[in-house]
Amino acid sequence: MKGNVEIVTWSGRQPSARLTSFLGRPAVDEAAERTARDVLADIRARGDIAVQACMQRFDRFSGAPREWRVSEAALRAAAAAVDPAFRRAAAEAHRRIRAFARAGLRKNWTMNDGRGARLGERFVPYDRVGVYVPGGAAPLASTVLMTVTLAKTAGVREIVVCTPAASDGSVNPHILHALRLAGATEVYRVGGIQAIGLMAYGTKTVANVQKIVGPGGAFVTAAKKLVYGNVALDSVAGPSEIAVLADADADPEFVAADLLSQAEHGTGHEKALLVTDSLALARDTRTALFAQAEKLGRGEAIEAVMKKRGILFVVTPSLAEGAALCNAFAPEHLELMVRNPERWLPAITRAGAVFMGPWTPECVGDYAAGPSHVLPTGGTAALFSGLTVNDFTRRISVIRYTRAALQRAWPVIEAFGRVEGLDAHAASGKLRLKKR
């Protein structure tokens, strides 16, 4: 295994060029954004023709528009093409994800404001959403369940999924089985930038959606950013990343395994950060990491991350400074591998998801726990939250006033209308109060 994993020491009083460079990863790659901008403009102008041209340029599969949609028969047949153990695992994961989503789904509510008015909120599902499911570097059947299940639970009627296909047009049967299980209503063999443009703008073949969710590589992430406004988005969910805050009691083999679990994704842009107050743990973890990496099937992907200096170990004077560093990194995944994780949880304010203690590896979040594994990356956990069932609903305020309630609110309305110079606002209230 070629590559280097550096161990650096740092405190809040000591600037580190290496650490600054590591923390400063862009949420969206500039080169990818330039490419995405050109592709999306072409799709917006030429529709299906441009999508097909992009598929010929970027994808293994470049079928005609009539070949893009996966048939219901193919979705049904996928169940027979996957092994029973996976079917059982998918069903169990689906149950767990759906149960968590149902528990978190916001309910309509109303209140009396004590002045004669009734106020409240309604939560209405989107009519049509788009989901992107990566399928190039790895067939992410789990991402299907972590996205489509939430949309279905929220009550979305039309759930459109785009995922890359093999050169013969086939889609991994594990993905197809998960799509049918979760409740996708339309599935298309389209990946990359063109999939985002197809869903955002619509063409003769595929109607546009109202919102796009789901993770992707650098080009998908850039495309999502550029279509914002034409559609709503979930968050920036690009190449995977993990941070582990660990003390001297942490098991170095556990820590190494969890860091490698995110480095193996395959884009080469992944990030893995160990923050610890123990130099001995950092050294033992580095030894364990190289030993484990040699035995893994995706060694080339891990090596690519190492060569890009995407794995870094930082030794801090204290766990408190380590927690502050983790917040500065704002990782997609954060593990607390410390003696008392509950003590340190309040110190963590910027992370997509937190995994508590030695028996909670990040993989339980990816596959089994229940919360969606679609989480913000590139430091945007400081700005966004992970995907939830409520991302598939729109909140609508509901307000009902009586004449008496309007009379009580009139001084407030009149004052703001006067100060803001918007006399038509105030006049619309005053007119009503003049009538009996």
Average pLDDT, rounded to a whole number, is 94
Please count the helical segments: 17
At the fold tier of CATH, the topology name of the largest domain is Rossmann fold
Sheet having the most strands: 6 strands, parallel
Structural class: alpha/beta
Helix content: 40-55%
Count the E strands.
14
Number of domains: 3
Task: Give me the secondary-structure topology.
Layout: E1 6-9, H1 17-23, H2 30-46, H3 48-58, H4 72-81, H5 84-104, E2 109-112, E3 118-125, E4 128-132, H6 141-154, E5 158-162, H7 173-182, E6 186-188, H8 192-201, E7 211-213, H9 218-227, E8 232-233, E9 241-246, H10 252-263, E10 271-276, H11 279-293, H12 299-307, E11 311-315, H13 319-329, E12 333-337, H14 341-344, E13 353-356, H15 362-367, E14 393-400, H16 403-420, H17 423-434
Parallel strand pairs: 1-11, 4-5, 4-7, 5-6, 7-8, 9-10, 9-12, 10-11, 12-13
Antiparallel strand pairs: 2-3, 3-14
Helix pairs in contact: 2-3, 2-8, 2-9, 3-8, 4-7, 5-6, 5-7, 6-7, 8-9, 10-11, 16-17
Give an account of the 3D structure.
It contains 17 helices and 14 strands. The protein is α/β, with parallel strands linked by helices and 436 residues long. The protein folds into three domains: 6-26 and 239-369, Nitrogenase molybdenum iron protein domain (Rossmann fold, 3-Layer(aba) Sandwich), CATH 3.40.50; 30-235, 3-Layer(aba) Sandwich (Rossmann fold), CATH 3.40.50; 402-434, no CATH class. The strands form three sheets. The chain has a six-stranded parallel sheet, sandwiched between helices. Strands 6-5-4-7-8 form a five-stranded parallel sheet, with helices on both faces. It starts with 5 loop residues before the first strand and ends with a helix. The model has no long low-confidence stretch (mean pLDDT 94).
